[in-house]
Specification:
39% helix; 5 strands; alpha+beta; single chain; five-stranded mixed beta sheet; Beta Polymerase, domain 2; 125 residues
Length: 125
């Protein structure tokens, strides 16, 4: 990733910033799902795992701080109280940070991975 300047980031630069920040803060199993076929939702979904509720919340907080540094302040946040599954939505990027058991249970990569390959919305039973 090239050195980023403060100010508006393109979706791909934002994706790289998020992945790098998560990786530097010890997130595991980082997966990037391309949602560009459905641009009204987001350009990318990033899924990762923290080892505990404390680490899940810490990863989210560090990512929020980094995004604020780049003047990205419009972030919808869910799950910071419990730390089982935190969702951060910047509009261009949706980040899911899970505890391992919760990630395994929901398995959203399987649901959205099909979507990124076909451009079709996931089907629910």
């Amino acid at each position: 990733m090239a050195t980023l300047k403060k100010g508006p980031l393109e979706p791909d630069d934002l994706k790289e910033l998020v992945v790098k920040t998560l990786d530097l803060n010890k997130a595991t199993d980082i997966e990037v799902i391309d949602l560009a076929h459905n641009a009204h939702l987001a350009d990318h979904m990033i899924v990762c795992t923290g080892t505990s509720s404390r680490q899940v919340v810490s990863l989210a907080q560090k990512l929020i701080e980094k995004l604020h540094f780049y003047d990205i302040t419009e972030i919808r946040k869910e799950g910071l109280n419990t730390g089982d599954w935190v969702v951060l939505d910047t509009g261009d990027i949706i980040v899911h940070i899970f505890r391992p058991e919760v990630r395994g249970f929901y398995n959203i990569e399987m649901m959205w991975g099909d979507f990124s390959a076909t451009g079709a919305a996931p089907q629910h039973a």
